[in-house]
Amino acid sequence: MVASITAGNFAILFVFLFSGFIIKQPSMPGWLKWVFWLSPLTYGEIGLSLNEFLAPRWKKMLATSNTIGEETLESRGLDFPGFHYWISLGSLFGFTIVFNVGFVLALSYLKSPGSFRAIISFEKLTQMQGSEGSQDSAYMVKKSKFPKDNVGPRKG
């Protein structure tokens, strides 16, 4: 359990670090820019930012002949063309399909690391306890399972 929590924390650190939130894409070293495109959060950030800052309410022109929205996108290193919105949307759907298929395959074909079971049938329990001792132990389990039923007949 500790290993899975540690691996999950490193995965989240990886996603946030290289998605453009912490390190902007133009500020990344050349050999590390490909990691920017592996992060699913990158595509969400690009899609949301382009959708917001290329909207008509951000079209006021500045002295630099750019709009306020374009300047904001440039300052964050997200100055992509408008069609990247659709690329981001398609990529997010692709990541969703890949992660869901991977999850289903992992649940189908990987075995649990231990032999822990959440539910043990009563027959299996009596069989396990029957191999330990006599049949009385199975009766005791059955008797103690429902204490209200073992009280006896009620009057009235």
TrEMBL record:
<keyword id="KW-1133">Transmembrane helix</keyword>
<protein>
    <submittedName>
        <fullName>Pleiotropic drug resistance protein 3-like</fullName>
    </submittedName>
</protein>
<feature type="compositionally biased region" description="Basic and acidic residues">
    <location>
        <begin position="146"/>
        <end position="156"/>
    </location>
</feature>
<feature type="transmembrane region" description="Helical">
    <location>
        <begin position="6"/>
        <end position="23"/>
    </location>
</feature>
<keyword id="KW-0813">Transport</keyword>
<dbReference type="Pfam" id="PF01061">
    <property type="entry name" value="ABC2_membrane"/>
</dbReference>
<feature type="transmembrane region" description="Helical">
    <location>
        <begin position="83"/>
        <end position="110"/>
    </location>
</feature>
<dbReference type="InterPro" id="IPR013525">
    <property type="entry name" value="ABC2_TM"/>
</dbReference>
<feature type="domain" description="Plant PDR ABC transporter associated">
    <location>
        <begin position="58"/>
        <end position="120"/>
    </location>
</feature>
<feature type="region of interest" description="Disordered">
    <location>
        <begin position="132"/>
        <end position="156"/>
    </location>
</feature>
<keyword id="KW-0812">Transmembrane</keyword>
<feature type="domain" description="ABC-2 type transporter transmembrane">
    <location>
        <begin position="4"/>
        <end position="53"/>
    </location>
</feature>
<dbReference type="GO" id="GO:0140359">
    <property type="term" value="F:ABC-type transporter activity"/>
</dbReference>
<dbReference type="InterPro" id="IPR013581">
    <property type="entry name" value="PDR_assoc"/>
</dbReference>
<keyword id="KW-0472">Membrane</keyword>
<dbReference type="Pfam" id="PF08370">
    <property type="entry name" value="PDR_assoc"/>
</dbReference>
<dbReference type="GO" id="GO:0005886">
    <property type="term" value="C:plasma membrane"/>
</dbReference>
